[in-house]
UniProtKB/TrEMBL annotation:
Spans annotated as Disordered: 101-130
Statement: the UniProt record of this protein carries the keyword Transport: no
Protein's name according to its UniProt entry: Phenylalanyl-tRNA synthetase domain-containing protein
One example GO MF annotation: tRNA binding
Length: 130
């Protein structure tokens, strides 16, 4: 499983793992948000499903019964744990099982941003090959 993506969206790091948007772990002292680029792109249908489960429940859950913000979910941050990578990988595998072909990370979500320096590129490639 690739874990070399260090910039992640709040959607993958928190929302798909059912962490409430009002949870203290999302505050600045616990999470480092990026300013350039400040937000990720989204896949609307999946965002809508996650938003519905957060707000109203589903799949046996009553949800958080609190408003869900797409703006909050799109924020980019330094990945706080590798479980976000697991959630994204499971999403891709499930999409393939349904006969869908998920887009490349860099086109689907900007959380797949690659390093821009020469050292960063060679280092990222080295990590991906391990």
């Amino acid at each position: 499983m690739p874990t070399s993506t260090f910039v992640e969206s709040a959607f993958w790091c928190f929302d798909v793992l059912f962490v409430p948007q009002q949870h203290p772990a999302r505050e600045l002292q616990d999470t480092f948000y990026t300013s350039d680029p400040p937000v990720s792109l989204t896949r609307k249908l999946y965002y809508e499903r996650v938003a519905t489960v957060h707000e109203k429940g589903g799949y046996g859950s009553t949800g958080h019964q609190a408003p869900w913000s797409e703006k909050e979910s799109k924020k980019l941050l330094l990945r706080t744990h590798a479980t976000a990578s697991s959630a994204h990988m499971l999403y891709k595998l499930a999409a393939r099982c349904r006969g869908e072909e998920p887009d490349d990370d860099t086109n689907e979500f900007t959380h797949g941003a690659k390093p821009t320096t020469a050292y960063g590129k060679s280092h990222a490639k080295e990590i991906e090959n391990t």
